[in-house]
TrEMBL record:
<dbReference type="InterPro" id="IPR025659">
    <property type="entry name" value="Tubby-like_C"/>
</dbReference>
<comment type="similarity">
    <text>Belongs to the LOR family.</text>
</comment>
<feature type="region of interest" description="Disordered">
    <location>
        <begin position="1"/>
        <end position="20"/>
    </location>
</feature>
<dbReference type="InterPro" id="IPR007612">
    <property type="entry name" value="LOR"/>
</dbReference>
<protein>
    <recommendedName>
        <fullName>Protein LURP-one-related 11</fullName>
    </recommendedName>
</protein>
<dbReference type="Pfam" id="PF04525">
    <property type="entry name" value="LOR"/>
</dbReference>
<dbReference type="InterPro" id="IPR038595">
    <property type="entry name" value="LOR_sf"/>
</dbReference>
Amino acid sequence: MAKIQPLTAAASPSSSDDHPSQQAYTVWMKSLVFNGNGCTVYGPDGAVAFRVDNYGCRGGREVFFMDRQGNALIRIRRKGFGMVRRWEVCRCAHNGGQEEEATPWFSVRRAEKGGAAVAMHGGAGTCYTIDGCSARKSEYRVRGVDGAVVAEVARKQTAAGVVLGEDVLTLKVAPEADHLLFLGLVVVRGLMPSSTAPCDG
């Protein structure tokens, strides 16, 4: 599998074995498939961990987030139009290689000032918010209901401090958080309009 140089999340002075530091993923907003539209996620070890491939279907209403073997983990569907547009996300389970019925997980809708609101399926309301201007998808934060930052996305920098292109991102996730959920949010954020990113929908 292809590998890239991982960017290790810096440990804070108070970090310890009991309080591990954030985990960092590299998200390349580009498909590994020729003429495909999608994203590729690299783990902290620099190896491909997850991918999204739409095989040339740029404006598709349905997207699958897969592991490196191509098994669907998350299904994302776009619903509605214009200001009432939202993205419904389901988890995909597998049994003997056969995909089972997808289970509703969370939904994302636009919020004020270019951000987004995340609600878990069956929940009472918004549980996460995504900050950031709609015109700049390369830098934003995900906050919990208490306002604390639980995930952060920014343009990746090399060890020498060189900032890479706008389509190469670093996702830092709090150690206790559900990493798959926040990786799914990065894909949904990429699907939102007003961007030239390959994951645009």
